[in-house]
Amino acid sequence: MIFTLPISSYLKILNLNLRTMIKARNPILYAAAEHLFSAGGKRIRPAIVFLVAQTTMNSKIILDNHKRLAEITEIIHTASLVHDDVLDDCATRRGVDSVHNTFNTKIAILAGDFLFAQSSWYLANLENLEAVKMISKVIIDFAEGEVQQNLTQFDLNISVFNYVEKSFYKTASLIAASCKAAAIISRVHKNVQNRIYTYGKHLGLAFQIIDDILDIISSDQTLGKPAGSDLRNGNLTAPILFALHEQPDIKLIIDRELHRRSDPTKVLNLIKNSSGIQQAIDIAQEHLQAAMYPLKFLHSSSSYISLIKLAEYIIKQISRQYILYLNTNSFRQ
After folding, report:
1. For 45-54, 63-72, 213-222, which range has the lowest pLDDT when averaged over its residues?
2. DSSP H or E stretch at residue 284
3. Which of 103, 173, 236, 273 could link 141 by a cystine bridge, Cβ 3.0 to 4.6 Å?
């Protein structure tokens, strides 16, 4: 069937379908997998799939395979979160206890594996080899990103290039691949598919950088998970890497792997007293501009205005959040 409903309506249907798709014979496994879905989430990735589907179809319609792709994308994303929380020992996610805290580590790992397996099953049933290849590569990228992240914990030699590469594997790969897969399902020209992929890649990189900025400046309640968790786990993100050059004390504290109880708070305050956050925002904005650029050269660029507006909206939101942060916080060295 084909629908012409607004994106918000598709997302409501998607939320209902997700719970149906993750049914498992074992009640504990089902409960663990369903736990994170019941907490909600922004559903940004499926929303992007729906937007790409609408803009690459002349009639603005969304096909059944587009809807299934959006669901697969969210299942893969959720599976990665379950595994991430185990590796980072994250206590909460989306404002509720993480799966491994609610059940145990073994159940959480199995639940993540189960979700990846479910996504692979539904992906195979798309019966579109090109789309299957695109999305399958993402799971490999996730593993690569996790390995890179764990090998570089508290590594002061990591470069911004290394950070961006890891961010692609952990976040941008899924968004880029799902964007292109949606365009493949729409059967648009390969040139359009590649431009859509570039859009998704840079949008995904911007998302990760912004998420890393929010990890520094936001509260636990706003994030739905512990603030400053990247720093505590030794993951040196963009704001931290930029701040290192201005605040030598950060290097000393990170070099001892935040051994003292007061170390995380000290580093966070040093970052906030540097230009690290603003430099990270600048990098995120550059990627958002790079996301919009390839769309402007398409012959039917007017039909891609919703994708461009999404990137513009994100630029405005991060700027507003930073201004709000500056107006409500005052830090002194």
Report:
1. 213-222
2. helix 276-292
3. 173
Strand, coil or helix: what is 188? coil
Q: What is the dihedral of CA 94, 83, 176, 228, to 10 degrees?
A: 50
Q: Are 138 and 69 in contact (CB under 8 A)?
A: no
- Distance CA(329)–CA(326), nearest Å, equals 5
Strands (E), the chain: 92-93, 96-97
Q: Which domains does the chain have, with CATH numbers?
A: 188-333 (1.10.600.10)
Q: Which two tokens stand for residue 120?
A: 């692979």
How many whole angstroms separate alpha carbon 214 and alpha carbon 222? 9
Angle at 134 between CA 119 and CA 120, to 5 degrees: 15
Q: Count the neighbouring beta carbons within 10 Å of the beta carbon of residue 117.
A: 12
Confidence of residue 191 (pLDDT cuts 50, 70, 90): very high
Does the pLDDT value for residue 135 go beyond 90? yes
